[in-house]
Each structure stands twice: as C-alpha cells, then as structure tokens.
Amino acid sequence: MNVLLLSMPDYFEHMPPIAVRMPNGALTSLAGNLDSHHRVAVADLILSHRQVKDTVTRLVREFDPDVVGLSVMTFQRRTAGRIISLVRSLKPRVKVVVGGYDPSLAGEAYEGMDVDFIVRGEGEVTFRELLRALEQGGDFDRICGLSYRTGDRWLHNSNRPIHRLEDDEIRPPNRSARVLQGYTLLGRQVDVIETSRGCTYDCSFCSIIEMRGRNFHTYTFERVLADIADARDHGARTIFLVDDNITLNVHRFEALCHAIIEAGLNKLDYFVQAMTSAIATHGATLAPLMRRAGFRYVFLGIENILESDLQFLRAEAKNTQRDHGRPAGNASVKAIDWLHRNKMYVVGGLIVGNPDDTRESIEANLAFARRYVDWPYIQHPTPYPRTPMTEGFRQRGLITNDRLEEYDGTTAVVRTEHVSAEEVEYVRWKAERWMKARHMPAALLHDPWFVVRHARQLLTHTFRGCTMRTLLGLEDERSSFVRYKAIRRREREYV
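^ thats the sequence. predicted structure below, dont judge the formating
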C-alpha cells in the first residue's frame, strides 16, 4: 500500500519557520514501524507552510496514496479539517487516519470530519495493525487504540497498553521516508530523538498524563546512540531530545551523557528539556557533564516563580530544590546558575495569566525572565482537551475564546480574575520581543553566516506589527499590538 503521512503547517509563535523547522518525530516513527512492503512518504508541512495546497496536491497526485495519515495538535485542528477536504477532493476513496494529542483526547471532534479512523495514544503498533487489517479485508474490532467508522456509527476499541520500550516492539524511525527538505534550527540541520517516554508528575496543563498515565519508560542506550548516529548520517548537526521528562532519572541522564561522549557523538549540538529541581540539585556534576556531551540549549520548565501559581499548575514538586532530600526553596535561579556557569543557554518556559494572576504577578515573572533567561518561551495557560486545568477554567467562567486555531500557547484565550485576556497577552508580547532580540549576539557567534543572512527577517518577525513610528515612540504600542494580532490571524490561514 502507498501511505502518505502529513504533519500540519501551523507553527508556534516562539518557533518561527525562518529560524526553527522541527521534524515531527512521530511520523518517522510510524514510518519505521510499518511492514517493509509498504511504500511510505512523510511530509512535514512546516517545510512548505506557505504552499500547503500546492504541496499536498502534488504529493497526492505523484504518490497516489491508499492511506493518508495526519498528526494533529489542538490548534491545528481547523487546518487538518481543510487538508482532509483537499485530499478527499483529489482522491475520494482514500482512507484517512488521524492521530496525535488532539484526536486522542478529543476524538469526538473528528467524528464529524470526513475521517475513517482515529488512532488513540501511541500509534506505532496500532497503525501497523490497521494497515494489515485493511490489506486483509477490514477486521478492525481487535485493534487496541483504534476508533473507526462503520456506516453512520463510530466504534471505539479498548485502549492500547502503554509500550514499555525495553523490547524491540517499537522499531527505530525511518528518516529516509521524508520527502521534503529544510529542517533547521538557526541554520543548522536539526532532528529529533527520544530516549524515553512519559512522566510521573501531574502538572495541570499537561496532556501527557491524559495520553498515557503517570509512568516512565526508557529505550536502551544502544538504540538511542544508533538513532543519534542515524540522524547525523541524514545530515543533522543539532539534536533535540524530545523526551517528556528526561531528568526524571538523573543518574540515567548522566549515563546517557557519558555514552554520547564515549561514542564520539558529542560534536553535535544538543537541545534538551529539563526540570529545574534536577538541574539545581545535581548541577555541580550534571551541568559540566552535559556541556562535555555537547548540550547547548536547555529548555527549563520554570513554569512560574510564584508559589501560588505553581500550586495551580501542580508544578511545585518539580520546581523545588532539595538538600539531602529536604525542600530548600525554588530551584529556578540555582538551576539557571549551574547552566550559565557551564556555558549553556536557558530557554525559559514560563506560564503567565493564571486564574488569580494580577498585573503585578505577571510583571514579576516577566522581570524574572528578563533578568535570568537567554530565550523566553513564555506562554499562557490554555484549556486543551481533558487537561486538569481545563475543567477549572470552565467552572470559573474564565475561557473567553473558543477559536481553537488560536490555542497556540501565545494567544491568551482565558482571562484571570483581575486581568483581561487581551491585556495578559499584550503585557507578555510587549516585554518578550526585546528579550528575544537580546539573544541575537549569542546566535551570531555560533551561527554567524545564518544570522547575517537572516537578521532582518528574524527581527522583522520578532517585531512585526511595529513601525518606525512605534520604535521612535510616536505612537502607542497598543496600535502595533493590534496590527500584530491582525498579522497573526492572517498567518493562520494555511489552506
């Protein structure tokens, strides 16, 4: 069978395509787990986000797929619906499958689309078994993790048990299936690697625990190192470790760093997501080791610097420094200090605009980011399907926006008890642009040719909506914010 796998072109504000075009690791993992006789193509539409219709049309006509699969997040749902309609117009009888966070947690939304199957949760084995069933005539009722249409009804099979990863049931990804080119992080080809799946914390904003429960499973280092080498052999010079919580087991992470060094793979740049508590508590030994292994950027889940907000986000435990097992205050500053001492850059993940936030509490977090982080990744709490925080927002009547295409983390779609959603977003937007511009010299030192060539585009993106009158103080910045919002709305029209 011919199988075409698509990821959506919708991007996060903090990851503009001029600078960051990250591959969808789930799709290459699906491709690597199909039976070998299938012909499979993976197309990350972020690589053609301004020519989506032409690209999809070309791929369907050239590849002639029997099955089209789409990986979808909540803010990409509208775009996915439009792409499905386009695919159907080009090939009405094609089988359409959707998967990812949004179809897994809000499957009912896809039952109204022209979709044949929904793959819930981890998809590798479910999708493999679905293709086998299609080849054999269509007996779907024993495929765990699958929902499917039969006539005018939908049937939902039992959930698939979580993969433990230690065996070979989940095969390595197939990067050779990619049919579009141009993955980049600041001009260097980038790829994604996972070394583990899952997390045992229960942060209220997180979809992971709803997808797979509170657990943590790991791949063998042999597999991980082979996967890194494969990414390198396909051209990657930067590796993003996409684990849900790689620092949940610090000793394993230390061993992984040693393994990377011993395998000679530390000439690559690494980008990782980490907990502040783990870095603060183990930084004396862990941070120097990370730097030797090639780590350059660390996304720190700071979440918020105020205890009341951390309680709402259920993130106190992972942001608490420990001294001999006892709590010893907020871990953020200590973690950042260890990383900076060892010449790594901090991407600061914070969430502002929580239900009880005032203008002052939002400003306090922005001031912290301005002082301590190298690149701000500041978001607003967003009521994604079935996350614990969503019900709380509904009960308090704080959700002000139901346009899901704007549920991208940097559009405020909920208000606080004290501040409107628009004001929350404006305060964050106004401060954050200058923080991003401040990182340009560091990027220039590491990737001079890319920054010199694209500096104007990078700054134009960061300050879009602003004019010379804005920068000279001749107009209210709220005018440029209104223009920015209008630009952002136009950017979301991909199809």
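The domain at 2-156 is CATH 3.40.50.2300 (Rossmann fold).
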